[in-house]
Structures are given as structure tokens and as C-alpha cells.
Amino acid sequence: MNEIVLTPIGIVKNSRADKTDANWSAIVSEIELADYMPVEAFDSIESFSHLEIIYYLDRADKTILGSEHPRENPEWPKVGILAQRKKDRPNHLGLTIVNLLQKKGRRLFVSNLDAIDGTPVLDIKPVYQEYLPKGKIRQPDWTRALMKNYWRTE
């Protein structure tokens, strides 16, 4: 396969320095545009309520190619890395839909971004209703237990 080289378009700034998987709703993050990107890249972005943030999980501990228990919890089934959202993915890519709170010059302020301070942002896309899933979303029961406190605001 050919090598892919990506240059971050920005960086996440927030108060979260650890990789704990809980309480992400309490965090407001700032995404600062990289110096090489013109501020015009953000033109009209405030007309959208939600954005997709694609980021590089640069502090992932390892790379998993096969399967394992989500969060190393043996009470949950062993599943393939592509059947979970674990940070130790083959390419260490993260993707989250966030709420856009404000645009201020070269910065976006967002909520519900599960990326720690200093995380490189690779791309930002507006959320169109037409791209959202059609029909009922199906997921295993263990995912609800895994996500129970993920977005908690304590």
C-alpha cells in the first residue's frame, strides 16, 4: 500500500490532559486553525449547528489489528477493532460529531469533542441531515454499558 501523509489543519485546546473515557460533555474545546490555513476556511461555518471533527489520536498507547475486549473488560465480548471505537486503532483516527458553539477568528468553540488537549485535527466537515443514518441504528447491548458515563457531565 502507498503511504499517506496528512498535515493537521488545527489543534484541540481544552482542559482535558488525560485519556479517561468519561464526562466528555463537561468539556468545551477550542479548535485553533493551523497557521498555514487561511481564516477563510471557516467562512459560513457558523451556519451549521454540528460539525464532524476528524482527528489523530497521537497519544494512543498501542495499535490493535485483531480483536480484544472493549476497554479490556472481560465481561464484554471480544470484538474486532473495526467493531469498536477504541483509540488504539490501526491508523489512530478519531471521528466525533460536535456541537458548534461559536466561531471567533481562527478558533471554533465546540462541545462533545472527545479529544484531549493538543490533539491534532486533520479535517472538519459540516453535518448535513442527508448524511445522517437512515432507519433505526442497531448496536449490541454491551455498547450501552460502555457508553454509560462517556458523556456524563459531572
Structure description:
- The termini are far apart.
- This protein has 154 residues and is mainly beta.
- The protein is globular, with a radius of gyration of 16 Å.
- The strands form two sheets. It has a six-stranded antiparallel beta barrel.
- The chain has one helix and eight strands.
- The model has no long low-confidence stretch (mean pLDDT 92).
- It has one domain (10-129, 137-147): Elongation Factor Tu (Ef-tu), domain 3 (Beta Barrel), CATH 2.40.30.70.
Give a quick set of tags describing it.
mainly beta, Elongation Factor Tu (Ef-tu), domain 3, two-stranded antiparallel sheet
> For the CA atoms, what is the radius of gyration?
16 Å
Amino- and carboxy-terminal Cα gap: 44 Å
Structural class: mainly beta
* Regions with little confidence, pLDDT below 50 for 5+ residues: none
User: How would you describe the shape?
Assistant: globular
Q: Please give the share of residues in helix.
A: under 10%
Tally of separate domains = 1
The CATH superfamily is known as YaeB-like
Identify the CATH architecture.
Answer: Beta Barrel
Tell me the strand percentage band. Answer: 25-35%
Q: Could you name the CATH class? A: Mainly Beta
The strand count comes to: 8
How would you write the strand order of the largest sheet? 1-2-7-6-3-8
CATH topology: Elongation Factor Tu (Ef-tu), domain 3
